[in-house]
Amino acid sequence: MVSYLPYAMGRMKLIWGDDTEEYKPERWLDENGEFRKESPFKFTAFQAGPRICLGKEFAYRQMKIFSAVLLCCFEFKLSDETKPVNYRTMITLHIDGGLHVHTFHRHGN
Question: Is 20 exposed, middle or buried (0-12, 13-18, 19+ CB in 10 A)?
Fold first, then answer.
């Protein structure tokens, strides 16, 4: 039997570099600031090959729309910026104790 762990693969320094534990959205952008697709065999959140998730493109579109609307209208800040964010590994990835944020309306909206 051959198996893999997507959670572990998403944090492998061999695949993603020494800064793999850092939150860096820019790692998904090319030199022009455009979204750069990674191989589905490298980024396995939606699986790969003949069993790739049928809803992958819909999920990406939904994330972009949701992010654009929220970031246009609101600003988010952690309630306690000194508190470390720790993950709980389950079937889906949870943040231990939740992620408490304050939300502020952006001025001019």
Answer: middle
Residue 45 lies in a domain: yes
Question: Comparing C-alpha atoms, which of 44, 37, 40 is closest to residue 3?
Answer: 44
**Is residue 16 predicted with pLDDT exceeding 90?**
no
Average pLDDT, whole number, for the chain? 88
DSSP per-residue codes, 79-90: S-TTSPP-EEES
Instruction: Name which of 69, 65, 93 is nearest 8 in CA terms.
Output: 93
Token pair of 75, please? 């600003």
Global pTM exceeds 0.85: no
- Residue 42's domain spans which residues? 1-53
Q: How many domains does the chain have?
A: 1
* Residue 1 in domain: yes
- Token pair, residue 80, equals 């306690």
Residue 104 lies in a domain: no
